[in-house]
Amino acid sequence: MKKILFMLSFLVISFISFSQEEMEKINQEVENIKIEKNLLDKISLKEFYKKSKLTEKIDFKIFKMAVGGYNKIKNKDKNYLIIIDFSKKSSEKRFYLINLLKGEMEAETYVAHGKNSGVEKAISFSDQPNSYKSSMGFFLTRNHYRGKYGYSIRLKGLEKEINSNAFLRGVVLHGALESEESYLNQYGFLGRTEGCPAIPLSSVKNILTRIPKNTVLFIYGEDEKYFEKSLLIK
Predict the structure, then answer these.
(1) Domains contained in the chain, CATH given
(2) Which terminus has fewer CB within 10 Å in the chain: N or C?
(3) Mean pLDDT along residues 146-168
(4) What is the DSSP letter of 34?
(5) Going edge to edge, which strands form the sheet with 104-109?
(6) How confident is the model at residue 234 (pLDDT cuts 50, 70, 90)?
(7) Which pTM does this prediction carry?
């Protein structure tokens, strides 16, 4: 049985692997994406929320918080916004890729949290190295690369003492077999990570390759300390 699982894992990883030439091409494409005036600049927040069909997906309070922080961040890409809602259980889809130009949710999927943040739900957060916990707050996506988790995107934490150690901790956006729906069906919740937000491995090629460098990522969770300390949501 272990041999079969190993072979299946190998086949999945092989399927989504990229050559060095492909990686360079993807990085060049995300660097050259044209930044246009997005729909958030043209219509009200509530109109955008309804048009994007987010009403049954993301609480408006969370969306408003994400956009409020997004508006304060400089040198960002204006094509996309990513929201991860860790107030939901891992058995629910809680990763959202929102196209700001078109006003639509382009992707929605499962995402795992850090193993010391909780089992079914992330209830504890940290920015400390070796905490194996998720961090809340605002990040910018950085370069795309292929590492020990396969195709991944580095993250830069923008909030001091909240997530600013993300790069030092090696917190990246990547894929994992433990985030697959098949794992969820077997165990009732997703596997957990060392602190990285991990989407299903089978979704990596379809989702991560769309995300430009300097895209804003907002990770929401239920931690009052964050709301007291964060300068980007005030």
Answers:
(1) 2-229 (2.40.440.10)
(2) N
(3) 96
(4) P
(5) 104-109, 95-99, 80-85, 216-220, 137-147, 150-157, 172-176, 198-200
(6) confident
(7) 0.86
